[in-house]
Predict the 3D structure of the following.
Amino acid sequence: MSILFSGRASGASDSAPGLLQKFVMGIVTHLRQAVSSLGELWRSPIWTLVTIAVLGVSMTLPATLHVLVKNLQQVSSSYDQSFEISLFLKNDVSETDIATLVTLLQGDRDVAKVRLIDKTAAMAEFKQESGFGEAIAFLDQNPLPDVLLVTPAQNQPAAAEALLNKLQKERFVELAKLDISWLERLAAIMSLVQQVVYTIAALLLSGALLVIGNTIRLLIMDKKAEIEVMKLVGATDSFIQRPFLYTGIWLGVFGGFLAFLVIELMLFWLRGAIANVTQLYQSGFSLNVLTLQEFGLLMLIAVALGLVGSYLAVRSHIKAIEPC
Amino acid sequence: MLQFEQVSKSYPGGFVALDRVSFELQKGEMAFLTGHSGAGKSTMLKLISLIERPSAGRVVINGIDLSGIRSSQIPYVRRDIGMIFQDHRLLMNHSVFDNVALPLVIEGFTGRDMARRVHAALDQVGLLDKARCLPATLSGGEAQRVGIARAVVNKPPLLLADEPTGNLDPDLSKDIMRVFEAFNQAGVSVLVASHDLSLIARMRYRTMTLKSGKMINDGLLHSEEAQ
C-alpha cells in the first residue's frame, strides 16, 4: 500500500499473486521472527536465565501448593463415608411404617443407602459393647429407639445438611443427627488454604510479570539504535514489537517448563518419605502428581504471563523511540 | 513532485530553523541543498520524512499534503522515500545483505524474490561481493554505498541524502555523487543536502542555499561562487 504514489507497486502483496501465497509468506515471516527472537535471547544469556528462573520459581510455589491442596482433598474425601445421618425413630412406630419409610428413602434421589438397626439389635449390640449387660437386664422395657442410617448421595457437607433438614421433618422421625461439625471445619480450612494459595499465586505472578516487563524493556533499550533505523525505513510499530512479543512467549515457555521440572523433582523426592508414612498407617494413599491438563494449564499461564509482560513493556517503550 | 509552501519550523525556546521556505522539486529532478551547519538543511529533510512536522506552511509530495498523514501512516510514507544519512545508520551486527534487505523484509518480501532485489541493489552500488560481510569490516565509502543500496532497494520515487559525503575524502565523495546521478538518470527524484560546495559546483545541478533558515539562492551554483 503506497499512500503517496497510488500507482506505485509496493510490498510483497503486489508481486504475490495468490491469497494462499500471501498467507504462507505471513507464516514464514512470523516463524522467522519467532526463531530470531529465540536467538536474541541466546545473545544475552544472563538476563534470560535470571528472568526464566524468576518466572519458574514464582510458578513453582503456587503450583506446589495446588498439588498439596489436591492431595489433602483426596485424603479428606476418604472420610466421606462418615457423612451418615442417624434417624432416631419415634417409639410408637410400627414395623410396617418403618418398612414403608425405608422404601421411601431408598427411592429418594439424594439418598445413596439406607440401613436399619432395629431396637432389639441395637440393644444386643449395646449389651455386648457397653459392659452394662447385667444392669440392662433389669430394665422392663427396651429404651432404645429404632435407628435408620442414611448415607447422602452427595459427599459435600452442605448437601448432607440439606438432606438432614429434610429428613428431620419426616413424620416418624424423632431426631435426626449428623456429626459434621469437624467435617465443616476441615472444609473451611481447606477453602482458606485454597484462597491463601490463590492470593500468593496472584502476588508472585504479578511480580514475575514485572520482571518480564523489565527484561523486555532492557532488550528494547539495548536495540534503540536498531529500532530507530527500522522506523526510518518504514517499519510499523507492530512489526517492530513482534519479535519482543515472541521473546516474551519464549520466556514463558522456558519458565513454565522450569516450574514443571522443579515440581516433578520435588514430588519424586517426597515420594519415598510419603511411602514410609503411609506404610506405617497402612493406608492406600498414593501421591497425586500433575495431570496432563494441569501441565497444559501451567504452560498456558506461563506463556500468557510472558506475552502480557512483554506487551506492557513494548506498548510504552517502542512508541517512545523516535528517530531524530 | 515535492513542494514546500511557505514552510516554517521553530523549536520550543524560540529557535527558528526554517523561515517561510518555498520551492518545488520536479519529478525526475536532481538538486542540492547547501548552507552552513545549522542553516536548516537537516530540518528540511526531516520535514519531508515526517521525523518533524512544520510549525507553519505545507509540505506536499505528489499532490498529497503531509499534514493530513496520521502518525500510524508515517511508516508507509517512509517506504516511498529512500533516505541516506551521514553516519549511514547500518545495523552493525547484521550482514550487508541483511541491512539492504531490511526495507524488503518490512514490506513482507521473502525468499528468492527478496534475494534477487537485494543483489540488484548491491550490484548498482558495486558491492555485490561484500554481501556476506559485516558493516564493521567495510571502509567508510563502502558503508555509505550499503546505505544507498538500502535506500533504493524498494525503488522509491524520491531519494533524500543528508550529508552523504560528510565523512569521505574527495575521490570517494565523487564516486558517491556518481551513484546518485545514475539513480537520477533512471528517473528517481534526488535531493542531496551537502556543504561540500566545490563538489556541488562541479556537478552543475540546481542548488538551493539556506542561510539561518531562509532560502537565499535557488539555481546553478558556479565554481567562482564556491571559492
